[in-house]
């Protein structure tokens, strides 16, 4: 085996593996990217039922209903709101009037069925996507990020 | 007073690191001995200065000196002492001070343990350490000073994020940083080698202990973080492919690749350029991780700072370090000629494959981690890349790596015979068939990945054990003879076996816990019983109480199996007052074959409580595997003295595959 031949082998196998990885990345990007939408985004450009995405905004005041582990609430960006259902334990610090991000799909009735409600880490934390969409809706009340 | 001492020593450390970054480099260039030796003295002074600074901040936390802004913002007089101390690095400024202190610690360690290094190499390594130190100390002093004063001082502090008030997390950052920063030493060795234009087996031997140390701590640090997520977040998950987790995982992948490629340099004098490049890449990923986490680009529990000037500074530092080292690499690397030739099927070939797959896996993780940031910047679209992406890209790359992992150690250097290797793995193949049959028989509806995982576990475990037995000539010669072989085998060979076994254990833990987990989610009234995974959980009720700095709701579950008492689980919900926040404290009963995991939630108004119960088979093997890997690293590390002694005395021949074939 000469030096050149060895290098050829290494380069070829490298190219093969990289090609495979690129194919894997591209194919899984097609179905595993999860987009983020605010209630206003949904009102302007509806997402078809059954497609997974993340919905973010504030938990609407007076909308939180709990029966055992069945939970209903609405997510609002103050301009629009979307009904959400969820089965499970809501994360620590889930509160009305606080920011929330839910991952799931819309059903045929336009209700968002969440498979996961994302935990916030402290009482001041606002998910950045939610902060942005509130700013767009013109109702951002927090301080500007400095 | 404490604050001023800390401030003062920080500035001393910065001045010293400037000198350390220039004088030894100049000395090595001119061949001037005193200037070269200066590096060691500077490293010592820098270490002492930063130790004083770190101790000063710690004292500030311990005595709750709220005139220091950092203490006021992140501590509270009522906090338990352990968390007052861990609070020192539980925030942006303090964690950077820890970074800088560990950097100085490693610099000092190079000076202290590197007496056998050529003076010029040691001088250059310490100089590069000094240059890195300049960047971090400037960052601390100019953008994130932990000793800034606050006037008027508040009566009490804000407190530490309760999620971080946890023993697992108290030690997660120091271990992780020991790993991140440990890679700076390998990086410095690589840069020094590029400047000298010389990489040889001796260089690889000097670098190896540092890479092993960094790798071991990274392994442990990541495992601690994962374990924390498992018991603290209350979802029973242990890895979320969260960008911040990825930020620590990427340097680990690079360090693992580096560990293996450096062996080829050491034994066969080949793959030099690639190893140097990997050393640069590994440390770059440490810096990238620090940048991603500290800049606030990623929002998570780790993102203490969202100050753009800080982000810019770290980004600038990152670009400067990576840019300059890659430029140096581009100029100097072509001059380094590779050594021994080898066929694709050989020990070298197997290690090349290891590197190829590990770096490809690293690439897919990198793409998945950065893509959301990239898309946000160019298209303003918000996306998240979650576990499905990583599962469908990472797993197909790792599976062949595991298959090859069982075969690699059987291969001699230069040229191997694939059929011969496979015939020695007959037993492993039988084990694969047996375990696949068992899975099919016991759990026919298991997902395909469960079959793959269990088969890999069997293949790897048996493969490793057969190879070990081969080396010891176990059962083929007298037991005493095998025992002597066991004792004579270099520690690094045992270390490899143990670390690889750790991988196998981890595969078992991941596969079994993902495939055969049972879960119950629902409201339970006191007295109610439920069967999860063959265990009966009786909910005995819940009560409220008061902890040192939180109030809590604690539920009680009596667990039994077929009428036999097993344990009592007492999960709780805590409500902290400062800062106001709730945390979930899961109750876990770890066993060798499974973990029982219970969480209690709010009352439903009718006397019932929301509960979540898991039965997770073999889940603790995930962290057990990580600990075994770490122990393997330690074993291998303990070989160092042996090797240095052996090299200086006489060449003692070792009856092992590697050294015989490598000689």
What's a concise summary of this model?
Helix content of chain A is 32%, strand content 29%. Chain A is of the alpha+beta class and 146 residues long. In chain B, helix 2 packs parallel to helix 6 and helix 15 runs antiparallel to helix 16.
Overall shape of chain A = elongated
Q: For the record, give the distance between the C-alpha atoms at the N and C termini of chain B, rounded to a whole number.
A: 61 Å
DSSP summary, beta strand count of chain B = 11
What count of helical segments of chain B does DSSP give? 21
Question: What would you call the structural class of chain B?
Answer: alpha+beta
The fraction of residues in strands of chain B falls at 5-15%
CATH architecture of the largest domain in chain A: Beta Barrel
Poorly predicted regions of chain B? 300-305, 645-663
What does it look like?
The complex is a heterodimer of chains A (146) and B (663). Chain A has helices spanning 3-32, 39-44, 128-137; strands at 33-37, 53-59, 65-67, 70-76, 81-87, 99-106, 112-117. By secondary structure, chain A is of the alpha+beta class. In chain A, strands 2-4-5-7-6 form a five-stranded mixed beta barrel. The relative contact order of chain A is 0.16. By secondary structure, chain B is of the alpha+beta class. Chain B starts with a helix and ends with a helix. Chains A and B meet through helix 1, strand 1 and helix 3 of A and helix 12, strand 1, helix 13, strand 2 and strand 8 of B. Strand 1 (33-37) of chain A pairs antiparallel with strand 1 (383-385) of chain B, so a sheet runs across the interface.
Features:
heterodimer; A: 146 residues; alpha+beta; 7 strands; elongated; disordered C terminus; B: 663 residues; Four Helix Bundle (Hemerythrin (Met), subunit A); 6-stranded antiparallel sheet; 4-stranded antiparallel sheet; 21 helices; globular
Any chance you could write out the topology, listing elements then pairs?
The complex is a heterodimer of chains A (146) and B (663).
Chain A: H1 3-32, E1 33-37, H2 39-44, E2 53-59, E3 65-67, E4 70-76, E5 81-87, E6 99-106, E7 112-117, H3 128-137
Parallel strand pairs in A: 1-2, 5-7
Antiparallel strand pairs in A: 2-4, 2-6, 3-4, 4-5, 6-7
Chain B: H1 2-30, H2 33-62, H3 69-74, H4 81-86, H5 92-113, H6 119-143, H7 167-196, H8 201-232, H9 243-268, H10 272-294, H11 308-332, H12 347-379, E1 383-385, H13 387-407, H14 418-424, H15 426-442, H16 448-472, H17 479-488, H18 491-515, E2 518-524, E3 529-532, E4 535-546, E5 550-561, E6 564-569, E7 572-576, E8 581-585, E9 587-590, E10 594-603, E11 609-617, H19 620-637, H20 639-648, H21 657-662
Antiparallel strand pairs in B: 2-11, 3-4, 4-5, 5-6, 5-7, 7-8, 9-10, 10-11
Helix pairs in contact in B: 1-2, 1-6, 2-5, 2-6, 5-6, 5-7, 6-7, 6-11, 7-8, 7-9, 7-10, 8-9, 8-19, 9-10, 9-12, 10-11, 12-13, 13-16, 15-16, 16-18, 18-19
């Amino acid at each position: 085996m000469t030096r050149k031949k060895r290098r050829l082998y290494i380069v070829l196998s490298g190219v093969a593996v990289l090609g495979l990885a690129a194919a894997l990345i591209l194919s899984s990007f097609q179905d595993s990217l999860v987009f983020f939408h605010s209630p206003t985004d949904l009102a302007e450009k509806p997402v078809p039922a059954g497609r997974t995405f993340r919905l973010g905004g504030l938990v609407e005041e007076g909308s939180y209903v709990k029966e055992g582990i069945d939970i209903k609430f609405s997510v609002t960006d103050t301009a629009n709101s979307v009904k959400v259902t969820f089965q499970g334990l809501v994360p620590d610090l889930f509160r009305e009037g606080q920011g929330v991000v839910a991952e799931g799909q819309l059903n045929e009735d336009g209700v968002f069925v969440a498979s996961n409600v994302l935990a916030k880490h402290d009482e001041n934390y606002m998910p950045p996507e939610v902060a942005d969409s509130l700013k767009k809706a013109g109702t951002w009340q927090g301080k500007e990020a400095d | 007073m404490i604050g001023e001492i800390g401030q003062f020593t920080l500035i001393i450390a910065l001045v010293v690191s400037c000198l350390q970054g220039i004088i030894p480099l100049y000395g090595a260039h001119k061949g001037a001995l005193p200037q070269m030796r200066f590096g060691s003295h500077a490293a010592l002074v820098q270490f002492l200065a930063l130790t004083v600074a770190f101790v000063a901040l710690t004292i500030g936390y311990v005595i709750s000196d709220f005139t220091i802004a950092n203490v006021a913002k992140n501590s509270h007089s009522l906090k338990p002492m352990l968390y007052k101390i861990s609070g020192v690095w539980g925030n942006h400024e303090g964690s950077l001070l820890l970074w800088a202190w560990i950097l100085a610690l490693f610099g000092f360690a190079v000076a202290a343990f590197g007496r056998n290094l050529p003076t010029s190499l040691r001088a250059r390594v310490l100089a590069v350490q000094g240059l890195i130190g300049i960047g971090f100390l400037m960052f601390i002093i100019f953008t994130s000073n932990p000793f800034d004063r606050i006037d008027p001082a508040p009566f009490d502090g804000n407190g530490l994020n309760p999620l971080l008030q946890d023993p697992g997390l108290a030690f997660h950052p120091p271990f992780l940083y020991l790993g991140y920063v440990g890679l700076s030493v390998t990086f410095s060795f690589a840069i020094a080698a590029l400047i000298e234009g010389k990489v040889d087996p001796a260089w690889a031997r000097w670098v190896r202990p540092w890479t092993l140390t960094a790798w071991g701590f990274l392994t442990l640090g990541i495992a601690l973080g994962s374990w924390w997520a498992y018991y603290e977040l209350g979802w029973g998950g242990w890895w979320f492919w969260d960008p911040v987790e990825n930020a620590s995982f990427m340097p680990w992948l690079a360090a693992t690749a580096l560990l293996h490629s450096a062996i080829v340099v050491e034994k066969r004098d080949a793959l030099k350029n690639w190893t140097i490049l990997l050393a640069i890449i590994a440390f770059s990923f440490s810096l990238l991780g620090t940048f991603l986490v500290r800049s606030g680009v990623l929002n998570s529990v780790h993102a203490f700072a969202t100050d753009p000037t800080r982000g810019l500074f770290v980004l600038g530092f990152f670009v400067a370090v990576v840019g300059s080292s890659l430029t140096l690499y581009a100029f100097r690397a072509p001059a380094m000629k590779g050594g021994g030739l080898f066929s694709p099927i050989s020990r070298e070939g197997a290690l090349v494959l290891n590197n190829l797959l590990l770096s490809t896996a690293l690439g897919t993780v990198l793409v998945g981690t950065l893509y959301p940031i990239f898309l946000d910047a160019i298209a303003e679209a918000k996306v998240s890349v979650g576990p499905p992406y990583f599962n469908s890209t990472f797993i197909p790359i790792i599976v062949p790596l595991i298959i090859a992992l069982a075969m690699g150690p059987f291969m001699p250097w230069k040229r191997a015979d694939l059929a011969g290797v496979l015939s020695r793995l007959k037993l492993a193949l039988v084990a694969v068939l047996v375990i696949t049959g068992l899975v099919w028989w016991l759990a026919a509806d298991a997902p395909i990945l469960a079959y793959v995982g269990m088969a890999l576990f069997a293949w790897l475990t048996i493969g490793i054990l057969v190879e070990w037995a081969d080396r010891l000539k176990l059962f083929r010669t007298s037991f005493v003879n095998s025992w002597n072989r066991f004792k004579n085998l270099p520690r690094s060979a045992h270390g490899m076996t143990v670390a690889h076994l750790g991988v196998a254990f981890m595969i078992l833990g991941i596969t079994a816990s993902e495939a055969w987990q049972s879960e119950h989610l629902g409201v339970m009234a006191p007295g109610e019983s439920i069967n999860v995974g063959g265990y009966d959980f009786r909910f005995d009720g819940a009560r409220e109480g008061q902890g040192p700095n939180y109030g809590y709701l604690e539920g009680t579950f009596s667990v039994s199996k077929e009428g036999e008492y097993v344990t009592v689980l007492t999960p709780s919900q805590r409500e902290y007052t400062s800062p106001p926040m709730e945390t979930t404290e899961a109750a876990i009963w770890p066993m060798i074959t499974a973990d029982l995991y219970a969480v209690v939630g709010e009352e439903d108004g009718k006397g019932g409580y929301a509960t979540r119960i898991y039965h997770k088979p073999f889940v603790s093997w995930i962290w057990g595997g990580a600990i075994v890997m770490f122990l393997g690293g330690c074993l291998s590390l303990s070989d160092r003295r042996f090797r240095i002694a052996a090299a200086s005395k006489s060449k003692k021949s070792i009856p092992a595959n590697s050294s015989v074939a490598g000689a």
